[in-house]
Amino acid sequence: MMTADMQLVIAALAGIGLAVVVIVRGRLHPFIGLLCGAFTVGLLAGLPLPDVAKAVQKGVGDIIGGTGLVVALGLSLGAMLHLSGAAASLAKAALRMTGVQAAPWATLGIAIVVGLPLFFETGLVLLLPIVVAAAEEMTGKDGPERDAAKLRLIMPALAGLGVVHALVPPHPGPLLAVEALGASLGKTMLYGIAIAIPTAIISGPLLAKFTTRGVRLEAPVLHDHALSIAPPARLLSLLIVLLPVLMIATGELGQMIPGMKGTAWLVAASNPVVALLLTNLIALPLLFGRRLRDAAIQNAVWHETMGAAGAILLAIGAGGALKQVLVTAGLSDLLARTVLMYSISPLLLGWLVAVGIRLAAGSATVATITAVGIMPGVVASSGVSPELVVLAIGAGSVFFSHVNDPGFWLVKSYVGTSTADTFRTWSMLETAISVVGLALVMALSYVV
């Protein structure tokens, strides 16, 4: 490795390390921490300050202009499903149809279905209070056995949300990776679902049998707050949840039919922004009916949406800035040369890069943004399937959630576990998703 390459690697490690310190130790928002890291990388790599500033602006603009719309529209749809009681109605109905023995599998299925169109934190806030309440009703034992039984219902729900967040578009992370690497959205969805289901089963119901033993729960800190309105019909709620995924899938599959490729309405349907916008417009009257124009309902929906969107968009925008500075400094080219020189698997490399950023920055979406930004050269030079690289990076992006991940504290607050037990349950669940997901991606690479 040449001196310039060593300087670049040191600059990248120093910038990411600084971001970790100011976020974890300095208690600064990831937006500020990641921007500080981006400027540090650029300056230590030898870039002039004006060039670093331009790269930061480009990185933020690219992310907010593309993925930012999907994030905002997904959050608003989540707010509607939450405040109307649609998601709660679906979850409670499904749980009533199952006995105690089948309940963990029911919560897993609910989380996968309801989590498909939602940002991870939105799905977490929306579903966890429902599952926790259902677990309270369905477990009659006292003491540690009762707590373990509750957790065996809760952990599969977390696994379902985690796998779709990491592996299945139109979640923002996988969707951004699809666009950045030039992958097929339809193939990525198909491969992602095929990998997500067994991954969720292993990391959810099966793993929970071992990680929940002896865990004691405290009273949850956070509670759910929804509007006092009659929930919509369950079939209607299910339609709204699945509509964006069905539109995208129809658009992608329809263009595979001879003579239909490029058809305007199919192209529009397969666009995630169009699909989510139309779903939002359809959901408003169907979920709220005549009360759609009530000021209280409108204020609640958009207040919940904008409050969550602000923090998320700032964080992923700063992640885009860090990614762009790393690309401008030449890290993408360095990785491409390394893969060719040492025959490293591009799938493993993408996973490792995402794992490193995940452990440093905390955010799975930021980890994905950063990793895909420096992987296009590797994909182009190696000829590997870009769809599988998307999924490998997605799997790496959820590795070992810990104290710098907002999801860690959300889970702890809603479930009622201690910090140590949150590591034992939630952090191990995320790690299982990451490792099992990578193993299945590697296995799939020998088939497709």
Automatic annotation (TrEMBL):
Swiss-Prot/TrEMBL keywords: Cell membrane, Membrane, Transmembrane, Transmembrane helix, Transport
Family per similarity comment: Belongs to the GntP permease family.
Keyword tRNA-binding found: no
Organism name: Sphingomonas albertensis
Name the UniProt record assigns to this protein: Gluconate permease
Topology within the bilayer: Multi-pass membrane protein
Compartment annotation: Cell membrane
InterPro entries for this protein: Glcn_transporter
Keyword ATP-binding: no
